[in-house]
Amino acid sequence: MDSLTWHVMDATADDWESLEQILPHVREFHGPVEPAAVAEIVGRLVREGLMEEMQRSVIDPEAVVADPIEFWFRMTPRGRAIWDAEGVRFRGEEP
Predict the structure, then answer these.
(1) CA dihedral 30, 38, 48, 91 (to 10 degrees)
(2) What is the DSSP letter of 57?
(3) Cβ neighbours of residue 68 under 8 Å, at least 6 residues apart?
(4) Neighbour count for residue 68 (Cβ, 10 Å)
(5) CA dist 65 to 13, 22, 49, 60, Å?
(6) What is the pLDDT confidence band of residue 57, given thresholds at 50, 70 and 90?
(7) What distance in Å separates the CA atoms of residue 64 and residue 88, rounded to the nearest whole number?
(8) Would you give the DSSP letter of residue 15?
(9) I need a labelling partner for 38 at 20 to 30 A (CA). Which of 8, 52, 72, 88 fits?
(10) Quick check: 94 pLDDT over 60?
(11) CB 85 within 8 Å of CB 4
(12) How many CB atoms lie within 10 A of CB 54?
């Protein structure tokens, strides 16, 4: 898992989040990134079963960018386990 993907997941660690809420978190902790890049990652994570969309919508990254408060995401239990395991690398924790 790369830093950008981990921080996208990290933005959803405590609640359902929309792209509008995910972007500032990712930019603060990862650095500059375009909304389309984050939407692509969210779409991939949903397809991989690591995140889910509140309405169980099929995720089209372009639609997410076009309406950044329409779609709400959170980690699945499987995604949370991977996010937590990978966190050692991205939180600056010692293994």
Answers:
(1) 10
(2) P
(3) 18, 19, 20, 23, 35
(4) 17
(5) 21, 12, 21, 9
(6) confident
(7) 30
(8) S
(9) 88
(10) no
(11) no
(12) 12
pTM over 0.85: yes
One-letter amino acid of 6: W
SS3 label, residue 17: strand
Q: Distance between alpha carbon 51 and the CA centroid of its chain, in Å?
A: 7
Mean per-residue pLDDT, 4-13? 96
* Residue-level length of the chain: 95
Name the β-bridge partners of 51: 75
Which structure tokens are listed for 88? Answer: 């050692």
8 Å CB contact between 83 and 6:
yes
